[in-house]
Hints:
4-stranded parallel β-sheet, 18% strand, 325 residues, binds magnesium ion, binds threonylcarbamoyladenylate, DHBP synthase, Rossmann fold, alpha/beta, 2 domains
Amino acid sequence: MQPLKFKMQRLTSQIKRAIALLNNDDVIAIPTETVYGLAENVHSEKATSKIFKLKNRPSFNPLIVHIKLLAYLENVAIDIPDKAIKLAETFFPGALTLVLKKQTTIPDSVTAGKVTVAVRVPNHPVTISLLEQLNFPLAAPGANPFGSISPTSAEHVYTYFKDKLSLILDGGICQKGLESTIIGFQNNQPILYRHGSISVEEIESVIGKLKIITKNETTPDAPGMLSKHYAPITKTFLTSDVNELIKKHFGKKIGLLLFDQKITGATILCQEILSTTSNLEQAASNLYSALHRLDKLRLDVIIAERFPDAGLGKTINDKLERASK
Ligand code: TXA
Ligand code: MG
C-alpha cells in the first residue's frame, strides 16, 4: 500500500500529463462514477476522429460532452426545457445525460451531424479535477470497443486498448458501474433514451411520467440504442428460470450470473453473485466486472438471471437483454 502523499503526487503528475495530451489532440482514458470513458477536447476534430477509429464506432453514433459544472450547460446547449433544468439541478454532478439542442460551437463531428447534443457533469474526483484545469469540455464515449462490455476499472480499459492509448487515468473501480441515464425531449416532453445508473422511478419523482424509447435502431433521435450491445464474446442467455436453462445446456461449460443466491446441486464452473444482500445498487456496480470475469473463462454459455423489474433492476435487465441478443 502506497502512502497517501505519494499517491496524490502521482495523481497530480498524471493529471498534468493528461492536460498536455488533451491539448495536443490526443485521446486518453478517464474514470467516471459510471464507467471509464475515452476523452478528448470537444473542439479537436483530429481527436474526435481518433476516438471513432479506436472504438470502431459507427459515425452516426454521437458522443457525450462532459462539462465541469451545471453553470456551463448554456455554453453547450440552447432552448433548455424547464424539466431539463430541474433534472440538472437535481442530478448534476451525477449519472444523468441530457440530450438538448446544441450550441453552434459544438462541432457536428461530436454530435454526428445532429442538432442536439448529449451532455453531463461527471461525478468522479479525478475527472472533476481534470475538467477544472481545462478550458474546454471533454467529449467522452465509454472506453470500450463498439458493442462490447463497458469498462469499470483501469485494467478493463487496458485489456481493450493496450498501448493504443497514451494514458489511462486510474481512478479505481467505478462506483456506480452502469452508464448514465439518458433523457431527451420532444416538444418539451421528457423521453428516456437509455436506462442507466439513475432509475426511471428517481427521474419520474422529479419531472413526472417519462416516455420510454430505448429499443430502436431507426429512431433518428436515439441512435446507438442498438438492441445488441454490452455483449460478452461468450453466448449469453437471460432467463427467469435458471435451472431450466442449466438442464438445457447439460454437459456444457456453464457460468452463472445471479442476483443474490447460488444455485446448489448443479455442476457449474463459475457462479457470480452480484449482491448477497439483494441490494440492487451493489448488483449494478458489480454487473460489468462479473461479466468481464465470466467472459475470460472460455465457457460455452453464460446464463444470467432476470432481475426484479423495478428501480435499477430495470437497467440491469435492459443491459442483460442487449448482452444476450
Ligand atoms: O456513463 C456514461 O454516459 C459514459 C461515461 C464515460 O460518461 N459514457 C457513455 O458514452 O456511455 P457512450 O458513447 O458509450 O454512449 C453515449 C450514448 C450513445 O448511445 C449515443 O447514441 C447517445 O449517448 N447520444 C449521444 N448524443 C446523442 C444525441 N444527440 N441524441 C441522442 N442520443 C445521443
Ligand atoms: Mg457505451
